[in-house]
């Protein structure tokens, strides 16, 4: 159940297999519940798995080699279902079912892909609310921190006039061009307006070997959610549904005389307690406090990351292209 801060990683990693070790490092660091990846470069015969996550994929099928594509990975502690989107774009959408139901949609719009505002509106109209949309849009607009607005950015800007859609970007850059050292903001995130005020959107301080920088989205739970900071969830990996059913049927049979003479309020209390107590016996809860270990982490990797950050700071000082300004 989504009873604690719901966190999501958004990243154009430009090749799942090439960046897998870095991805594992990021997972260890942030422990995201949801991964939205662009340019996975999968094909239908070679799809990458991530331990403790369930993967959903939309692969590019009209290319001579593995390229493009999007994927969403959901923590195994969450129950999720895929939405069959009607679209020609590289897009995938998943609904996460819990105490709060949230839909996540992930897109990749390469430069060679032409799209209209109607193409994106068609996707948005298929998403149950509340929803979050992530993706590499390859589009520039002053609305999200670009110095100029291009045709693609204008198309997306039209959609943002919809009162039900909110841009989550804060103006920070999300990509470093390896050829000229320019920063830009082409990785975008949206949500429906009713959800936006509970969302925190940040760009990672680290830059990895992809030219795009990871983005982290966190949804603060509603204040009315009881015990929302406990970090406990129902352990749905190995539930004993047969025992669960047997206990409930037996209790209803035993308490049948009482049930028949109860008020509606008493019935609600009885069945609520019965379900929760039975689930505690047959399903159990798990905590999410322990992050998975990364066995290949060592001092050399730590030193390499430090040197990489030093080089990045040197580049920024020499070129005057700060990460907070888009090119």
Automatic annotation (TrEMBL):
Among the Pfam families in the record, one is Exo_endo_phos_2
The chain positions of domain Endonuclease/exonuclease/phosphatase read 102-216
GO MF annotation list:
catalytic activity
Do you know which InterPro entries this protein is assigned to?
Endo/exonu/phosph_ase_sf, Endo/exonuclease/phosphatase
Look up the coiled coil feature and give its residue ranges. none
Spell out the PANTHER family in the cross-references: DOMAIN-CONTAINING PROTEIN, PUTATIVE-RELATED, ENDONUCLEASE_EXONUCLEASE_PHOSPHATASE DOMAIN-CONTAINING PROTEIN
**What name does the UniProt record give this protein?**
Endonuclease/exonuclease/phosphatase domain-containing protein
Q: What is the lineage of its organism?
A: Eukaryota, Metazoa, Ecdysozoa, Arthropoda, Hexapoda
